[in-house]
């Protein structure tokens, strides 16, 4: 069964629009990750349902119709409570979620333009246009809010560790590697036994498991190595076969590869038990990269460690650590201090000369 067929079964509205199904088939054939295709399918399906409710042909829809969809997103209740989507709003989906919902809609209209079915794309990108007033910046439909990643404070982290110590060895080593090597959830869950090099204490993060298809080799600490050795002994009691490193120990899926959802549930349980509800599967990555910035790592070194294709993503950790601001403040204060001393000295000298 093809990925597109699965999505049309999950979202029947996609099957009612021939061009939508064709667009998804193209992306599936191009080898996009299943989770990406699923996200595209969901976002486009929600938009198409809005078009059907409004009696609008999506192929002929204009910017005003897309704006109706945006209005729905900004007023839709979020399952975790209200989220700020603009300076003066306090309801609706998070700004980043709205941006994600608009991506498949924008790409769908790009496809229609390429097929000669439209002349323009009603979803703005927010791009630089020479000659425009105000610096030539054309705004997208929804202003993009850039927020720094959340990381726990020292006391919050200690509470998380206290709860984590009571977890089985598999969960403890997964948390240790997630922080030590700044791994994304999919990268951690997809590790295989032959990705581990105990002699050099390194992990190979395969390209197909990464967000941007960049393979990398990352180190882990000696203390994590000891915990990993303990887990490998434990793993041998579940399965001696080589393959996925982390295995399920439940009765239903015994010795099967651990799923993303199981790992997410483990982390959520730790978050609730520690009282740090914002703790998630991505928090350890954010914390590690911020700590590297605090230690003075250069931005390109952090980018290589994190597997970022561009340093733009890495810079947020430099900003979050406050390293650059602290250095600039120190240099500025040193200059001000020197200036004040010089001023006081000149005053004293002038006083001596006047006696």
TrEMBL record:
Domain (Core-binding (CB)) ranges: 14-113
One Pfam family named in its UniProt record: Phage_integrase
CDD domains: DNA_BRE_C
Lineage: Bacteria, Bacillati, Actinomycetota, Actinomycetes, Kitasatosporales
Organism: Streptomyces yunnanensis
Top-level lineage group: Bacteria
Name the UniProt record assigns to this protein: Site-specific integrase
Domain Tyr recombinase: 147-330
Annotated SUPFAM superfamilies: DNA breaking-rejoining enzymes, lambda integrase-like, N-terminal domain
InterPro entries per the UniProt record, alphabetical: CB (IPR044068), DNA_brk_join_enz (IPR011010), Integrase-like_cat_sf (IPR013762), Integrase_catalytic (IPR002104), Integrase_recombinase_N (IPR010998), Tyrosine_recombinase_XerCD (IPR050090)
Keywords: DNA recombination, DNA-binding
């Amino acid at each position: 069964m093809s990925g597109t067929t699965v999505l049309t079964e999950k979202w029947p509205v996609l099957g009612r629009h021939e061009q939508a199904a064709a667009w998804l088939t193209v992306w599936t054939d191009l080898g996009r990750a299943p989770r990406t295709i699923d996200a595209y399918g969901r976002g486009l399906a929600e938009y198409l349902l809005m078009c059907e409710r409004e009696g609008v042909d999506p192929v002929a829809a204009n910017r005003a119709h897309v704006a109706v969809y945006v209005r729905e997103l900004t007023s839709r209740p979020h399952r975790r409570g209200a989220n700020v989507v603009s300076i003066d709003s306090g309801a609706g989906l998070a700004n980043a979620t709205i941006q994600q919902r608009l991506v498949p809609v924008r790409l769908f209209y790009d496809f229609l333009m390429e097929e000669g079915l439209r002349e323009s794309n009603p979803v703005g990108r927010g791009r630089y246009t020479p000659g425009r007033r105000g610096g030539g910046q054309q705004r997208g439909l929804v202003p993009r809010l850039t927020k720094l990643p959340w990381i726990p404070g020292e006391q919050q982290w200690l509470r998380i560790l206290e709860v984590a110590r009571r977890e089985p060895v598999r969960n403890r080593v997964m948390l240790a590697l997630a922080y030590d090597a700044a791994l994304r959830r999919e990268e951690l869950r997809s590790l295989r036994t032959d990705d581990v090099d105990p002699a050099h204490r390194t992990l190979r993060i395969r390209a197909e498991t990464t967000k941007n298809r960049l393979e990398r080799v990352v180190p882990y600490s000696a203390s994590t190595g000891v915990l990993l050795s303990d887990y490998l002994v434990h793993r041998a009691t579940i399965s001696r076969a080589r393959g996925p490193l982390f295995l399920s120990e439940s009765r239903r899926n015994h010795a099967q590869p651990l799923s993303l959802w199981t790992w997410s549930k483990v982390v959520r349980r730790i978050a609730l038990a520690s009282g740090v509800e914002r703790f998630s599967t991505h928090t350890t990555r954010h914390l590690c990269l911020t700590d590297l910035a605090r230690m003075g790592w250069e931005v390109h070194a952090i980018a290589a460690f994190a597997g970022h294709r561009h340093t733009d993503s890495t810079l947020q950790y430099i900003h979050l650590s406050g390293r650059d601001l602290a250095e600039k403040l120190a240099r500025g204060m040193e200059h001000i201090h020197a200036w004040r001393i010089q001023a006081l000295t000149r005053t004293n000298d002038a006083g001596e000369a006047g006696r």
